């Protein structure tokens, strides 16, 4: 999904009213989807000055049983995870998994159907104003301010965040220097390359020095050098104490810079932990490929008759090859070959390969697009 900059200014009308639950009944994620959601306009508490009830958690980003439904689509379906201060968390999933929807809720551009999310301890439902002050959001598509130059663009946002005088001038210069855009401060945005626009957009998210940054696919469309540079900037921001949630389709792209990752598909969080942890859990898993020379149509049926203690899953027929996930030992592997041979199949080849990070992603997710 992509959202334009204009979207960010229409948060309350953007959320379908019928899906919005009043803030009072979703505080701290106390409700469950089994409870009927009350219908109506945006919560009353939105229009009152933010009081600010700080959550007792030490986590800097927290999603608690977050749900967001669009009609029958469960874009975010009971997602819970948290990110500690100064950590980089990679949010990974295929198209339509629910990444942008979760991030928009964190950025207070949308409301949860149920549950809640917290930024630096403040609820996006009850304290959106306080959340916004602490959060920098880089959406997955750049806005349409084509005729202003980079400095004017950043200056606009700095003013919007209430920066004044020398503080604003110093901050703007820092952002231009940090993002490597000072050389083009006077250049109109319409003349910027994709990479430069991404830098400027990162600068915009940084302009008020937020504690938390939400970056929606910031590396999309960048060349390899620009990706490396972006990784360096993100790591440096985390080293300076910022907490960062960053999304991508590509696990390997995030693996190096993330302290932890969460894999989401069809609105559900399928796995969380450090890349090493997730890899360790699947370490003894491999994919077996068996080449059979006869009766290809019957191979999958034959496999279903295998001793059920032999751990295989998701068999697929691919021409002469049958491939399946395997987490057994060499004896199990031998038993599979014996099973094929005793059922009259001509086995020509057996190969096992360990899962790479990409395989791991494909294994955890099923590539389902909603
Ligand atoms: N405003 C909306 N109205 C209706 N459906 C929506 C809306 N926003 C998102 N969805 C649906 O919610 C699901 C999750 O979308 P989302 O954009 O969060 O996925 P994503 O993981 O960010 O995907 P991508 O990587 O392609 O950007 C999709 O099925 C999408 O069509």
TrEMBL record:
<feature type="domain" description="ABC transporter">
    <location>
        <begin position="61"/>
        <end position="291"/>
    </location>
</feature>
<dbReference type="InterPro" id="IPR003439">
    <property type="entry name" value="ABC_transporter-like_ATP-bd"/>
</dbReference>
<dbReference type="InterPro" id="IPR027417">
    <property type="entry name" value="P-loop_NTPase"/>
</dbReference>
<keyword id="KW-0813">Transport</keyword>
<dbReference type="GO" id="GO:0005524">
    <property type="term" value="F:ATP binding"/>
</dbReference>
<keyword id="KW-0067">ATP-binding</keyword>
<comment type="similarity">
    <text>Belongs to the ABC transporter superfamily.</text>
</comment>
<dbReference type="InterPro" id="IPR003593">
    <property type="entry name" value="AAA+_ATPase"/>
</dbReference>
<dbReference type="GO" id="GO:0016887">
    <property type="term" value="F:ATP hydrolysis activity"/>
</dbReference>
<feature type="region of interest" description="Disordered">
    <location>
        <begin position="1"/>
        <end position="54"/>
    </location>
</feature>
<dbReference type="InterPro" id="IPR017871">
    <property type="entry name" value="ABC_transporter-like_CS"/>
</dbReference>
<protein>
    <submittedName>
        <fullName>Putative ABC transporter ATP-binding protein YbhF</fullName>
    </submittedName>
</protein>
<dbReference type="Pfam" id="PF00005">
    <property type="entry name" value="ABC_tran"/>
</dbReference>
<keyword id="KW-0547">Nucleotide-binding</keyword>
């Amino acid at each position: 999904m992509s959202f334009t900059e204009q979207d960010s200014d229409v948060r309350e009308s953007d959320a379908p009213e019928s899906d919005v639950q009043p803030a009072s009944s979703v505080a701290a994620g106390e409700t469950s989807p089994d409870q009927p959601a009350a219908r109506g306009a945006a919560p009353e508490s939105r229009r009152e000055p933010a009081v600010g009830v700080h959550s007792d958690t030490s986590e800097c980003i927290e999603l608690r049983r977050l749900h967001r439904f669009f009609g029958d689509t469960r874009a975010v379906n009971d997602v819970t995870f948290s990110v500690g201060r100064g950590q980089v968390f990679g949010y990974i999933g295929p198209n339509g998994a629910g990444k942008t929807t979760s991030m928009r809720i964190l950025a207070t551009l949308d409301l949860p159907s149920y549950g809640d999310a917290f930024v630096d301890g403040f609820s996006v439902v009850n304290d959106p104003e306080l959340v916004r002050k602490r959060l920098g959001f880089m959406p997955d598509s750049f806005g349409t301010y084509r005729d202003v130059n980079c400095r004017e663009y950043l200056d606009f946002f700095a003013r919007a965040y209430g920066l004044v005088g020398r503080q604003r001038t110093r901050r703007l210069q820092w952002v231009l220097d940090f993002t490597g855009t000072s050389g083009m401060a006077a250049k109109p945005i319409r003349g910027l390359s994709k990479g430069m626009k991404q830098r400027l957009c990162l600068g915009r998210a940084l302009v008020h020095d937020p504690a938390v940054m939400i970056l929606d696919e910031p590396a999309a469309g960048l060349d390899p050098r620009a990706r490396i540079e972006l990784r360096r900037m993100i790591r440096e921001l985390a080293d300076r104490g910022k907490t960062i949630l960053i999304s991508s389709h590509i696990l390997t792209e995030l693996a190096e810079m993330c302290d932890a990752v969460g894999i989401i598909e069809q609105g559900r969080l399928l796995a969380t932990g450090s890349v090493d942890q997730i890899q360790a859990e699947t370490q003894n898993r491999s994919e077996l490929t068996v080449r059979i020379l006869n009766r290809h149509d019957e191979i999958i049926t034959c496999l279903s008759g295998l001793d059920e203690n032999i751990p295989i899953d998701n068999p697929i027929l691919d021409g002469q090859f049958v491939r399946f996930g395997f987490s057994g030992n060499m004896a199990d592997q031998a038993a599979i070959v014996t099973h094929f041979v005793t059922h009259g199949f001509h086995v020509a080849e057996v190969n096992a390969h360990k899962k790479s990070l990409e395989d791991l992603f494909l294994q955890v997710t099923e590539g389902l697009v909603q």
